[in-house]
Structure formats: structure tokens, C-alpha cells
Amino acid sequence: MNSQYEVNYQSHHEGAASLDYQDMDLAGQDLRGLDLRGANLSGANLERADLRDANLTRANLSQSILERADLRGAILIRANLSGASLISADLKGANFTRANMSDTLLDQAQMMDTIFKDALLTRSSLWQTMLTRANLSRANLSEANLEGSVMIGVNLWLAILSRANLRKTNLTGASLVACDLSESILVDADLTGANFSRANMAGADLGNLTLNETNFSRVILSCANVRMVKFDDAKMTKAVMPDGGTY
For residue range 77-119, what is the model confidence (pLDDT) as tens digits? Predict the structure, then answer.
């Protein structure tokens, strides 16, 4: 029985508990729309696999290879993708709510309109990703690398980005209300029209920011590095400045 036939057969005829594809080579396979809830795909090779609209709720994809895979519209709620590689994967419209994606590689992935609500993305690499309109509300991205990513209109409400690298990111129109950005790096970032109201940016490196109609109301900038930053074009109502004073 070839690997693709086996996956298709088991997903339609057997219970989720029996879906064990650990370390299996499924590279390039057509797995569109399959019910893979709870499946064990840890260590599996899914490079270039077609997983559009597949249901991978609570699936174990830890240490799996999903590079250049197509996961558009896939459901990965509470899935375990820790240590997985999704470099250059297409994740547009996929749902990763409460997924474990710690130490995951997502470099240059396409993640427009993708949902990451309450997801764990600590220490993950999202270098030069496309995150336009993605929902990362309450996600934990502490120590994540987002350098050079396009994050236009992204929702980061109450997200944790402490010690994250956001150098040269485009956050135009993004919502970072009450976000934890303590000790993060935002050097050369574009914050045009972004809302940082009540965000914690204590100890952050904010050198050479682009601020145009940016909302910094009640932002905490204690001990932040604000060299070359001009706050004239930002809304600074009751913002706590690096010296401890209020703007």
C-alpha cells in the first residue's frame, strides 16, 4: 500500500487514534480536505504536500517537514508543530488557534489572513514572512525573529513579543493594543497608523522608527532606546517616556 493511499484510506475508514504516520515520507502527496484530527505526523516529511482544507485539529506535527507545503484553509487548532519546519509554506487562511509552534521555522511563509489566536510561537523564526491581516491576538511570540516581515493590518492585541526581533518590519495599520514589547527590537520599523495604546515597550530598542499617525497613548517607554525617533507625528497622550516622565 503506497503512502498516499494509506493516508486516504485510514482518514476515511479508521478512527483518529489509529492515524499514525510518524516519520513517514509524504512529500508531494495530495492530502487535500482529509480528516487528520489527532493524527501522529511527528517527524513526517510533508515537503510540498497539498494539505489545503485538511483538518489537523490536535494533530502531532512536531519536528515534521512542511517546507513549501500548501496549507491554505487548513485547520490546525491545538496542533503540535513544535520544532517543525514550514519554510516558504503557503498558510493563507489557515487556523492555528492555540497551536504549539515553539521553535518553529516559518521563514518566508505566506500567512495572509491566517489565525494564530492564543498560539505559542516562542523562539520561532518568522524572517521575511507575509503576515498581512493575520490574527495573532494573545499569541506568545517572545524571543521570536520577525525581522523584515510584512505585518500590515495584523492584530497583535494582548500579544507577548518580549525580546522579539521586529527590525525592519512593516506594521502599517497594525493593532498592538496592550501588547508586551518589553526589550524588543524595532529598529527601522514602519509603524505608520499603528495602534500601540497601553503597550509595554520598556527597555525596547526603537531606533529610527517611522511614526506617522501612530498611536502611542499610555505606552510605557521606560528605559527604552529612542535615538533618532521623532514623536511629533505620533499620538503620545500620557505616554511614559524613557526618563520616567510623562509626555
Answer: 999 999 999 999 999 999 999 999 999 999 999 999 999 999 9
Rounded CA gap, 120 and 34, in Å? 25
SS3 25: strand
Model confidence pLDDT, tens digit, residues 123-145: 999 999 999 999 999 999 999 99
Sign, CA dihedral 83-87-89-94, equals: positive
CA dist., res. 53 & res. 51, Å (int): 6
139 neighbors 164 (Cβ within 8 angstroms)? no
Q: Distance between CA 238 and CA 247 in Å, rounded?
A: 6
Give Cα 78 to chain centroid, integer Å: 14
> Distance of alpha carbon 113 from its chain centroid, rounded?
11
Residue pair 25/47 in contact by the 8 Å Cβ criterion: no
Which CB contacts under 8 angstroms, 24+ apart, belong to 142-148?
142/180
CA 204 → CA 182, 223, 226, distances in Å? Answer: 6, 8, 8
pTM of the full predicted structure? 0.92
Tell me the three cell numbers of residue 141: 511570540
- Neighbouring CB atoms inside 10 A of 201's CB total 28
Residues 114 and 133 sit within 8 Å (Cβ to Cβ): no
